[in-house]
Amino acid sequence: MRRSALILASAVAGVLVAFVFLSLRGEPHTFAGTVYSNPGAAPAFSLTDDSGEAGSLSDYRGKVVLLYFGYTFCPDICPASLAELATAVAALDPGDRDRVQVMMISVDPARDTPEALGSYMDYFDPSFVGFTGTDDQIATVAADYGVFYQAHEGTAATGYLVDHWAGTYLIDAEGRLVESFGFGTPGEDIAADVEEWL
Hints:
Largest sheet: 8 strands, mixed
CATH architecture: 3-Layer(aba) Sandwich
Helix content: 25-40%
Structural class: alpha+beta
Number of strands: 10
């Protein structure tokens, strides 16, 4: 009788422990972007950063990088995307913000000088960094990431405009290209995914 009571008590205790464990774990995270099943190393690049210095992706190894391709004269898509990335950084746990780097590679190097990029990125968040380079350098990096862009005639007020892919890549702290977000992904959802990768 005593042995049966001990077995029953052990079984009940086991069920309670399992219940508590599952409750603490919660539901598995649902990613907002497209997660790559076999992530490889993100294509390396060396360009000119918004301080006018040479900079490369490898400089940010150890951080989660949110990489966007855009340009400062963009009338709507780029400001909306960078605003969401600013929201994402602000939504992170305070201790995690220094472990994340948002960067934009310009697809309009003719107009996007380091100074112009620096002012533009600062408007969204002073921690954001912009990169520019020669036409050939930008074309090579964009091709490495599979990013389309093409200049076309605008208006007398705007000058030419540049059509471009408007998503954002997520590169993990080990330098692997692990996820991408489509245009319009809310910043809070991006932040939740970043926290998972951190």
